[in-house]
Amino acid sequence: MSFERFRSGPRISVDNDRCELYAICQAEAPELFELGPDGRLRYRRRLAERDYQAAAAAARCCPTQAISPRGLPGDRGIELTGKPEDSAPRRAEPPRQR
Ligand code: SF4
């Protein structure tokens, strides 16, 4: 059985080792992120086209750079919402291989 179809397409991942549960991502993109009453961050992994900007903004705002957008058009990732004054786009580290 191939899991390739589950891995393809625009998506985000959150590195749990980096995430400090500040919930800034929820404030930036509440349609994608939710910090639950149990203290766990839940998020929508697969992105629709309408989510690209919000996902990129959340990744850019995360203070620990725990959010990694993948497969966005042109693989520009968080550059999608880069402000003109952001001369050096930042990227979160890829998730660790298990
Ligand atoms: S903004 Fe970053 S550190 Fe804060 S909850 Fe979201 S992913 Fe975690």
Automatic annotation (TrEMBL):
Superkingdom of the organism of origin: Bacteria
Electron transport listed as a keyword: yes
Key words, A-Z: 3Fe-4S, Electron transport, Iron, Iron-sulfur, Metal-binding, Transport
Key word Electron transport present: yes
MF GO annotations: 3 iron, 4 sulfur cluster binding; metal ion binding
Cofactor or coenzyme needed: [3Fe-4S] cluster
Start and end residues of each stretch annotated as Disordered: 65-98
Ranges of compositional bias, category Basic and acidic residues: 76-98
Pfam families (alphabetical): Fer4_15 (PF13459)
Protein name stated in the entry: Ferredoxin
The species this protein was found in: Amycolatopsis cihanbeyliensis
